[in-house]
Amino acid sequence: MTTLLNEPKSLAIKQVFLIAYLTGILWLRRNPISMVFSAISPFSLLFVLFVVSNGHYIAFAVTGSLVMALVGYGLALGQDISFYKTEYKVQDLFVAAPVSPLTYMTGLALSQLLFGFPALTVLAVLAALFGNSIASLPILISTIMLIWGSMSAMGFFFSFPHICYICEMPPR
């Protein structure tokens, strides 16, 4: 069975970005308003926490909104996997294609990140502005990647019956 590590790096990276393009960018081009709806929850939390604390805890509010956004995008991945399998049958296309399961899952996780990219960018800039120093920027970026990765894994776990179908791809 091939994995992302056994494939030529350039081919695997191209496949990841192609899957992210097909399931993320094309959707956003057809439905750009969906990006607004995906950003409403974290910014509404930010607004409520700002109003309730009279602006005193804005750093905590930005951090909470950023975490809420990343958790939401990661967990929405499980819904997308189920939807792609049952409604669009796109998973059957990838199972028949020479794409490894890890490449397919990475592409889907990246496509979820594309949905929230504008909101995550604004929240990350706000978190950097309200942070203690510029030295905390690498920690912020690594924390964003860690939360996104773990919540994407959680989204895959919650769609477990569909993941089992992906993992049973025949070796190439």
Word description of this protein:
- About 80% of the residues lie in helices and about 0% in strands.
- It is mostly helical.
- Helix 1 (about 10-30) packs parallel to helix 5 (about 100-115).
- It has helices at about 10-30, 35-50, 60-90, 90-95, 100-115, 115-130, 135-160, 160-165.
- The mean pLDDT is about 80.
- It has one domain.
- It is elongated, with a radius of gyration of 18 Å.
- The termini are close together.
- The protein contains eight helices and no strands.
- How many domains make up the coordinates? 1
Give the termini separation.
6 Å
**Main beta-sheet strand count, sense and barrel state:** none
What is the count of DSSP helices, taking H or I runs of 4+ residues?
A: 8
What multimeric state do the chains show? single chain
Helical amount among residues, as a percent range?
A: over 70%
Hey, roughly how much beta strand do the residues contain?
A: under 5%
The number of strands is 0
Low-confidence stretches: none
The overall pLDDT average reads 81
Radius of gyration, CA atoms, in whole angstroms:
18 Å
Instruction: Give helix and strand order, one letter per element, not per position.
Output: HHHHHHHH
Structural class estimated from helices and strands: mainly alpha
Large-scale geometry: elongated
